[in-house]
Design brief:
The chain has 10 helices and no strands. By secondary structure, the protein is mostly helical. The chain folds into 2 domains: about 45 residues, Arc Repressor Mutant, subunit A; about 130 residues, Tetracycline Repressor, domain 2, CATH 1.10.357. Helix 1 packs across helix 2, helix 4 crosses helix 6 and helix 5 runs antiparallel to helix 10.
């Protein structure tokens, strides 16, 4: 007789986080409150503190959830050419900000205590998404396609440019999404060209 497979049950901690994410999706960071979350899951505020000691812990959880969503996208990039992969990486960053705006906000904009810090966390390889970018930068370097600028510096320069442009768009600084997307891609391409290996003139 076959044993019935057990189905994982949702824990109280899972329910609290699910309610937190729903509230964040609907109202943003300003709408989060321990009391409102407690009401949503049928608990007292004091009961929530057993699982998340304060609101900052919930913000950290939202940030980590956002990063997980972004890292899943990066793992699914498929280009074999390292330069094309890096282009997909920054195109994907743009698409992530549009298709999952709250996950993007959680990953890159929330004032989370556990947010990764430059340069130590990134140099230590604590960002899975950037680790994959570093590997493709080094592969491009090995193929003679880019110069000897450190991979961390290249990734930081391009990421800061992309995130800055996305913030400008959401602040209403572009006339249309179409114009913004075209500007973003041109800017990333031009910025990347500064790291391209130049042929030495004879």
């Amino acid at each position: 007789m076959l044993k019935k497979q057990s189905i994982p049950t949702e824990t109280t901690r899972d329910r609290i986080f699910a309610a937190t994410r729903d509230m964040f999706d609907a109202e943003g960071l300003a709408g989060l409150s321990m009391r409102k979350i407690a009401d949503a899951v049928g608990l007292t505020p004091m009961a929530i503190y057993k699982h998340y000691p304060d609101k900052d812990a919930l913000v950290d959880a939202l940030m980590l959830d956002g990063f997980s969503a972004w890292e899943d996208r990066v793992r699914n990039l498929s280009a074999k050419n390292p330069i094309r992969w890096l282009e997909q990486f920054f195109d994907g960053f743009l698409d992530f900000s549009f298709s999952e705006p709250r996950r993007y906000e959680a990953a890159f904009l929330l004032p989370a205590r556990k947010a990764r810090q430059y340069p130590d966390d990134f140099s230590a390889g604590r960002s899975p998404a950037l680790n994959m970018a570093y590997e493709h930068i080094e592969e491009a370097r090995a193929q003679g396609l880019i110069d000897n600028t450190p991979a961390l510096e290249i990734a930081l320069t391009l990421s800061a440019l992309g995130q800055g442009l996305i913030s400008m768009y959401h602040a209403g600084r572009f006339t249309s999404e179409k114009e913004f997307r075209a500007t973003y891609r041109r800017a990333i391409k031009r910025s990347f060209q500064q790291f391209a290996k130049q042929e030495t003139a004879e």
